[in-house]
Amino acid sequence: MSTRTQQRPAYRCTECGWSTAKWVGRCGECQAWGTVGEAGGAPTRAPAPARPAVAAQPIGDVDVETARARPSGVGELDRVLGGGIVPGAVVLLAGEPGAGKSTLLLDVAARAAQSGPGSVLYVTGEESASQVRLRAERIGAMAPRLLLTAENDLATVLGHIEAADPSLVVVDSVQTIASAAVDGAAGGVSQVREVAAALIGAAKKRHVPVILVGHVTKDGSLAGPRVLEHLVDVVCQFDGDRHSRLRLLRATKNRYGPTDEVGCFDLSDTGITGLADPSGLFLSEDRTTPVPGTCASVSLEGRRPMPTEIQALVAASSLSNPRRTTSGVDGSRTSMTLAVLQARLGLDLGGRDVYVSTVGGARAVEPAVDLAVALSVASAAADRPLVRGVVAIGEVGLTGDVRATVGVQRRLSEAARLGFTTALVPRHGADQLKAVEGMRVHPVANVQEALLVALPHEV
C-alpha cells in the first residue's frame, strides 16, 4: 500500500504552534516576538489507517454518567466550574504569586479526601512535604486519605498516580515538573507542553480529574505556551488585591459550564473560606446614619451582583493643579464624570481636591457605577448626605444623560435584599423592570434629575 509524503512547514511558533513557510520575527497568530524557529525539514509520512479499539456508537448510546460533575466540597469553586469537577477533566488554575492558589487547592484536596470515594494525591514541586503539612495544619486541611508527595520528575509523578489510583490529583505547579525525555529546564515551552500532555493523557485514560497550578507573567497572562490553554478543559483565574482579603475566581474557559460566574473567597491567616454573600466587605458597617460623600451602587462580576459603596471627599486645594485621586474606580471615567458635573451642573471643582474611593478594596470599574460616583462627589461638595437607603445604577454620558446598563433587575433585587429602599436607574428600559418589594425605583434621564431625588435641595 502506497503512502503519501508530506513536507512539514519550515518554521513553527513555539508558543502557539502556528506554522509558516518562511521565517518571520513575529508570530502571525499569537503576536509574540522571537518565537518562530525551524520546525525541521525531514519529511513525514501519513500514518496508515489502524483498526479502532472501540467501534463508533450512536450518540444516544453514549454513557453520560461518567461526565457528571461531582461537588468538590467548596461551594464557590463549584459555582465557577458549573456544579463541580467532572471526572477526567483537567483544570488549570492561574494567578499571581501570593494570591492563595496553593491554599485554595490544599483546602479543596482535603475536602475531597474527606467526602470523596477515594484518596486524593497532592503533588508539590515548589515546596517540601513538611512545608505543605504545616500549611495544612494551619488551615485545618488534615485528612487521612490526603496523600502528599514532593516531586519534580514527570515519570515519578505518573508512577504515583498509577500506584495510588486517586480520585483527584493536584499538581502545584505545572512549571516545576520536568520530563527527562525532553531537553530544557523545567518551565520551558517544550517542558510545559510535554508535562501537560502527559498529565492530560493520564487524566483521560483513568477518568481522574487533575488540577494544575499555573504561573503568570508580569502582564498577568498565563506563563508558558498558549497551546496549554487549548489543551486543558477549564482555565480559571484566581486574583485579588494583595492588601485585601477578598479573592475572586473566574473561569476564562470552561467546556463543562458557564464562563460568566465568579467565586468569592476570604483569605486570612487561618485559611480560605468561600463567601456566598460578600456584601459585608464592600459596604460600611453603619448605614443608619447618612454621611456626606457616600453613595452605594451594584456592579456585576459576571452574572453575580456585587454591592459597592463609593466614597468621595472634596477639599480646598493649595495647589495650582488640584489633585484627582482614585482608588478602586476607573480614574479616566471618574475624570469624565467630574467634567460633566462642572460643565453641565455648574459644580465648582476647579480649585478643590477630589478623592474617590471604594470600601473594602473593591474594584468597581464598570460604567454602571458612574452615577454613584457623580452623586457621591456632589454630596461631598455640598457637605450634605444623600437620602437614606439610596442606591444609584447607571452610566453617565458626556452630555449629562444617564444611559442604560445591563442587568438592572438583578442589581435591584440584590440592593433590596441588603435593605436599600430607594433606587435611581436609567429611564431607558425602566418600563420593563419588575416591581421589587420594599424598593422605590426612580427612573432618571440625566444627572440633574438624579440629584433632585437624592439631594432634595439644589446643589
From TrEMBL:
PROSITE patterns for this protein: RECA_2
Gene3D superfamilies, alphabetized: 3.30.230.10, P-loop containing nucleotide triphosphate hydrolases (3.40.50.300)
Superkingdom: Bacteria
Region feature (Lon-protease-like): 353-459
Presence of the UniProt keyword DNA-binding in the record: yes
InterPro entries reported for this sequence: AAA+_ATPase (IPR003593), DNA_repair_RadA (IPR004504), Lon_proteolytic (IPR008269), P-loop_NTPase (IPR027417), RecA_ATP-bd (IPR020588), Ribosomal_Su5_D2-typ_SF (IPR020568), Ribsml_uS5_D2-typ_fold_subgr (IPR014721), Rubredoxin_2 (IPR041166)
Record key words, sorted: ATP-binding, DNA damage, DNA repair, DNA-binding, Hydrolase, Metal-binding, Nucleotide-binding, Stress response, Zinc, Zinc-finger
Binding-site residues for ATP, renumbered to this chain: G95, E96, P97, G98, A99, G100, K101, S102
Extent of motif RadA KNRFG motif: 253-257
Signal sequence, renumbered to the chain: none
Ranges for domain RecA family profile: 66-216
Pfam families, per the entry: AAA_25 (PF13481), Lon_C (PF05362), Zn_ribbon_LapB (PF18073)
The keyword Aminoacyl-tRNA synthetase appears for this protein: no
Function in brief: DNA-dependent ATPase involved in processing of recombination intermediates, plays a role in repairing DNA breaks. Stimulates the branch migration of RecA-mediated strand transfer reactions, allowing the 3' invading strand to extend heteroduplex DNA faster. Binds ssDNA in the presence of ADP but not other nucleotides, has ATPase activity that is stimulated by ssDNA and various branched DNA structures, but inhibited by SSB. Does not have RecA's homology-searching function.
Family: Belongs to the RecA family. RadA subfamily.
Cross-referenced HAMAP family: RadA_bact (MF_01498)
NCBIfam families named among the record's database cross-references: sms
Domains: entry comment: The middle region has homology to RecA with ATPase motifs including the RadA KNRFG motif, while the C-terminus is homologous to Lon protease.
Protein name: DNA repair protein RadA
Species in which this protein is naturally found: Georgenia wutianyii
Highest classification ranks of the organism: Bacteria, Bacillati, Actinomycetota, Actinomycetes, Micrococcales
Gene label: radA
